[in-house]
Specification:
The complex is a heterodimer of chains A (277) and B (252).
Chain A (H helix, E strand, L loop, with lengths): L1 H8 L2 H19 L1 H6 L3 H20 L6 H20 L5 H23 L5 H10 L9 H20 L1 H9 L1 H6 L4 H23 L4 H15 L3 H26 L3 H23 L1
Chain B lengths: L3 E10 L2 E11 L4 E5 L6 H8 L7 E6 L8 E4 L4 H4 L5 H6 L14 H13 L15 H15 L3 E5 L7 H16 L3 E5 L3 H7 L2 E4 L5 E4 H6 L1 H14 L17
Parallel strand pairs in B: 3-7, 3-8, 5-6, 6-7
Antiparallel strand pairs in B: 1-2, 1-4, 8-9
Helix pairs in contact in B: 4-5
Classes of the chains: A mainly alpha (277), B alpha/beta (252).
């Protein structure tokens, strides 16, 4: 088994997959706690559908690097969704459902009508479940991924205290002079970037799992925000690393292997914490 | 000059006015209790004072000595907070956030301020404990310590004793009263009129009739008499006798 792994590691695409997978897992776990506690997890889900639509458009336009289209579109939608979410007069969740499902439908429609690909359902499947795209990353995509991850992690560390203050008590933060709206915007933009990144790893349907599972597990294990964040980052990285190894050895789809592993860890931690209390 | 002066203020949501014609002022060292029925606009008034929402009309004038962001706020607990994974220290320290501006991390003075305020509230020993595991009274003291990190001058408290048992309630009241004696002005929303007249120096009654004045004026006023009587009826149904100005007699 070890020899088999060493054999695979000689290929650059396997090394790329491991590096990118671990980085994406790290990034996506960072904001999980905030998104879960702010009841923002639906934004993540909605955005992933938007990203799917954008990818469909990009693939029909035959862009050499579809991230250049998908990233701005998703970020813009994140900002729009946040705005409608704050507006009490419009039903925020209905708007999100509308945009996300609409984007999904149009995406599939566009792919179907205009696609020149011979394997349409394969394309759709890999966009939804990220089955192979992690193993077919080009050098440029890996670099873009590295840069974006670095930006996400830096932003998170710099704004960690403000993100905490706004997550715990938005009204207090506003009253004591923190620009809560700008922090919310930052959270939405970072979420959008993470989702676009994570589409490579697990595909658009499984992204929410990657964001939410490590945080939910960590929340069972610790009672301090810092520890929860660190534990969820660690869990996410370990699960992604092991998940990719397992999928290489056993030939299973990468995304669903990672998510299944995370769900398993959550189940174990949930059970242990129930028994302990 | 007063810390806070309110002139002809109307508050409400978008175009729906809940209370209008509010006029009052808070001086350094005052203890103002805002009383009134449920839905009379007490919390809306407080959110307007905190600039969480825009006033419909009128003015809120801050005194020269009170800078922006120097208001400490003790909100009612939200559902999110009940299950929040954060340590006491993290929460208290987050009270220093507003003063920090663009600085990403807390400095040494802020960490010391947080520790001092935890000591002041008697929760230093809980520093590393998780917020969601604390009792209601302990949680309120954590939030109070956080509010103290944001201000040295004025505290706005929204129903600080709701959901607390009688013993913890009276301890909370004397804690707030001590802070007031140390020179911090208090604006507090309360349901509990008997404690309001016991501790406050001024009363703002909002509802059908609006009253603002000192506690003694309130006890003599019609609004005050009527409201006290109603509360007493609610506490002792059957006993409808009313002795004016019987503030020494704490009913609860």
């Amino acid at each position: 088994m070890i020899e088999k792994l060493i054999f695979y590691f000689q290929y650059p695409f396997v090394r790329y997959a491991i590096i990118v997978g671990v980085l994406i897992a790290l990034c996506s776990s960072l904001l999980g706690v905030t998104l879960v506690l702010k009841r923002f997890s639906f934004i993540g889900d909605g955005l992933s559908h938007v990203a799917f639509g954008a990818i469909a458009v990009a693939s029909v336009l035959k862009l050499s690097n579809n991230m250049l289209l998908v990233l701005p579109v998703t970020v813009i939608c994140a900002v729009l969704l946040l705005r409608t979410g704050q507006n009490a007069e419009i039903k925020g969740d209905a708007v999100i459902a509308m945009i996300s499902v609409g984007a999904m439908a149009f995406g599939y429609l566009i792919m179907n009508v205009f696609s020149t690909s011979s394997n349409l359902s394969g394309d759709v499947c890999s966009t939804l479940f990220g089955s192979t795209s992690i193993l077919t990353l080009t050098r440029e995509e890996v670099i873009l991924c590295l840069v974006l991850s670095a930006v996400v992690i830096t932003m998170f560390i710099l704004f960690y205290n403000k993100i905490f203050a706004v997550t715990f008590d938005e009204n207090f933060a506003k009253a004591s002079g923190t620009d809560a709206e700008r922090i919310n915007l930052l959270i939405a933009v970072i979420t959008a970037v993470i989702i676009v990144l994570a589409m490579n790893l697990v595909g658009s349907l499984l992204i929410s799992a990657l964001i939410i599972f490590p945080s939910l597990t960590a929340m069972r294990l610790s009672g301090s925000f810092k520890m929860v964040t660190l534990i969820s980052a660690l869990l996410s990285v370990v699960c992604a690393f092991l998940g990719i190894l397992i999928s290489i050895l056993a030939g299973t789809p990468v995304g669903s292997t990672i998510v299944a592993l995370e769900a398993l860890v959550f189940g174990i931690c949930y059970g242990v914490s129930r028994i302990r209390s | 000059m007063a810390l806070l002066t309110v002139k002809d203020l109307s508050v409400g949501f978008s175009s729906h006015v809940i209370v209008k014609g509010l006029n009052f002022s808070v001086n350094a060292g005052d203890y103002l209790c805002v009383v009134g029925e449920n839905g009379s606009g007490k919390t809306t008034l407080m959110k307007t004072l905190l600039k969480l929402q825009e006033p419909i009309s009128g003015q809120i004038i801050k005194g020269d000595s009170l800078k922006e962001n120097e208001i400490g706020y003790l909100p009612q607990q939200t559902v999110v907070q009940k299950d929040f994974p954060a340590s006491v220290y993290e929460i208290v320290l987050s009270g220093c956030q507003g003063a920090g501006g663009f600085r990403p991390f807390y400095n040494r003075e802020e960490k010391k301020l947080a520790r001092d305020n935890m000591e002041r509230m008697g929760i230093l020993s809980l520093s590393g404990r998780c917020y969601r595991e604390l009792s209601g009274g302990q949680q309120q003291r954590v939030l109070l310590a956080r509010a103290l990190c944001a201000t040295k001058k004025i505290l706005l408290l929204d129903e600080p004793v709701s959901g607390l048992d009688p013993v913890v309630t009276s301890r909370m009241y004397s804690l707030i009263s001590e802070l007031n004696k140390e020179g911090i002005s208090i604006i507090m929303i309360s349901h509990d009129i008997s404690s309001a007249v016991k501790y406050a120096s001024h009363i703002l009654h909002i509802g059908d009739r609006i009253f603002f004045g000192t506690k003694d004026q309130y006890l003599e006023s019609n609004a005050g008499k009527f409201f006290l009587l109603q509360q007493r009826k609610a506490v002792y149904p059957g006993d409808v006798h009313f002795a004016p100005g019987s503030k020494g007699e704490e009913s609860i």
